[in-house]
């Protein structure tokens, strides 16, 4: 289906408004900025191909999120089990924001230790603030699976963060 000039401009505006948020979600899902950029490009490409129908009938943000998750999970199924993400995401520090940067890095590192489907569940539930039902729909699983993966993932994050000392100068909040 061809997209006319007006629809193309609407799509360009949509991408400009949502790209940063979609990229942040993709980085959290993949744990790797390069892979996340590829994932975002694929998600926007697939959205563009269906833009005419989405513009009138569906929420384009929900569609991009669905493509992002299904593509990510599809890539995981195809990827060799021996392949591992080894690069770290650099954070640039700003005066007065060091504690926040350190804590975000600790959380990102902790998320990377989780199995991919558990990490995907937590990103969708808590970063994207989706309901259990919406998360289950996007991941193609039951609400019970989302609940168990959420509980398992939060427990593993809690254990990892408690076992990993905060670097000097970073505040550390204990969970009770």
Provide keyphrases for this structure.
globular; mainly alpha; 176 residues; 71% helix; disordered C terminus; single chain
User: What is the H/E string?
Assistant: HHHHHHHH
Cα separation of the termini: 55 Å
Low-pLDDT regions: 169-176
For the residues shown, what is the average pLDDT? Answer: 82
Radius of gyration: 18 Å
> Would you count the extended β strands for me?
0
Structural class: mainly alpha
Beta content comes to: under 5%
> Helical stretch count?
8
Shape: globular
Helix content: over 70%
Main sheet characteristics: none
Provide a short characterization of the protein structure.
By secondary structure, the chain is mainly α.
Please, could you describe this protein's structure?
With 176 residues, the protein is mainly alpha-helical. Helix content is 71%, strand content 0%. It has eight helices and no strands. It has helices at 5-30, 33-49, 51-57, 60-78, 98-112, 116-127, 132-139, 143-163. Helix 5 (98-112) crosses helix 8 (143-163) and helix 6 packs across helix 7 (132-139). The longest helix is centred in the first third of the chain and has 26 residues, at 5-30. It is globular. 23% of the residues are buried. The model is unreliable at 169-176 (pLDDT under 50).
